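2024-03-11 09:14:02 DEBUG pipeline.ingest accepted 1 chain
2024-03-11 09:14:02 DEBUG pipeline.ingest length=113
2024-03-11 09:14:03 DEBUG pipeline.predict start
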Amino acid sequence: MPQWVKNWAAFAAGGAIPLAIVSIVLLALWLLDVRDDHKHVVVVNARTPVFIGSGDENCDSSRQLTTVEKGVKLPVDRVRYQKNCATLDIRLPDGYVVLGVGDVSINPPLPTN
């Protein structure tokens, strides 16, 4: 095998290993964040709208899916912090709640950082 092939293979391996380590660390941090989001439950205090889609759509509260009544508890799939609001993807097919639209509380409370 020519020397230039060995040098290129060593260079590629030397770049791939740190990239793989960084990718694994970032994946682990993301998985921990998702696991922490699953610990939350939305408790509906008054009639509250649920919107179509996932909460990553810039707090779009124009496409209402349904309304949930007082006392309903909805498990959270994902908490998304947007520029102007926070959204909670709930375990309903294709639905999310926008904080500030309707009356809900979150148990355990979200961090206030």
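2024-03-11 09:14:41 DEBUG pipeline.report Strands lie at 41-44, 48-52, 64-68, 73-81, 86-90, 95-98, 104-107.
2024-03-11 09:14:41 DEBUG pipeline.predict end
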